[in-house]
Every structure is written in C-alpha cells, then in structure tokens.
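--- STAGE predict ---
source: upstream dedup step, 1 unique chain passed
mode: sequence only
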Amino acid sequence: MGLKGKLVSQIDIKSEENVFHEIFSEKQHHWGTVGSVIYLNYTHDGKERVAKEIIEAIDEEKKSVTYKVIEGDLMELYKTFKLTVHVNTSGDDNLVTWTFEYEKLSEDIPDPHTLMDFCLAMTKDIDSHHQSIAIT
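--- STAGE serialize ---
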C-alpha cells in the first residue's frame, strides 16, 4: 500500500444540481473565487477540527469545485489533501460525487474513510434542508 491515495464516493440528492453546486461555489455564500482562502471549524470523529483551504478550481459547466487543504488538522496526517465536489445530472437523478486525493505522511496513517462519511452525511443534511425549504 502506497502513501498516495484517492477515495471517491457518490450520493443521490433530491435537490436540483444548481442549488447544491452553488452552496460550494461562490454564488450562494460568497465564499469567493479561485484563489480564495476559506477557514473552516468543524467536528469530525467527535473532535473539534480546523482547516484552511484554498479554492483551486470552480467549473460551472461541470458543476464542480476543488479545494486544496493548506493548513489545519489534516496536515498533521497528510502531506497533501485535495477535495473535489461534483454534481452530475442524468434525467431526474442528481448525483453528488466527493473525491479526495491525498498523500499520507506515513504508512501508519489511515485512509480518510471517516472524513468521507462526514462529507456524505453533510451532503444528506444539506439536501434535506433544501428539500424542507422547497416544501414551504
């Protein structure tokens, strides 16, 4: 097993793909444009965590956003860590794909499966929230 890895997971959403994509791009929350730095505080595996990310790419046509982690808790485990969130539509189905590309600092470091679970759960929560807004 090598130090470099890639995890990809997908989840169906009921919200329109534009609604979900805009949350992670600059439109909805004014997070910025390519090159913008984002500071995040979050709880993962029962612990308070921090991350400093830079928006590396926004592709409106493909409905994807790529972030590169540059500081924070993940950098204690990984030499590099990139996250891409992509929304794909096929007919009535909207599919969110999370991709992690990373390089671990050592073989002892686990692959970030629990972080992927966190992102999928967050996606579900965002989708549920937007569904409840659409109903009212």
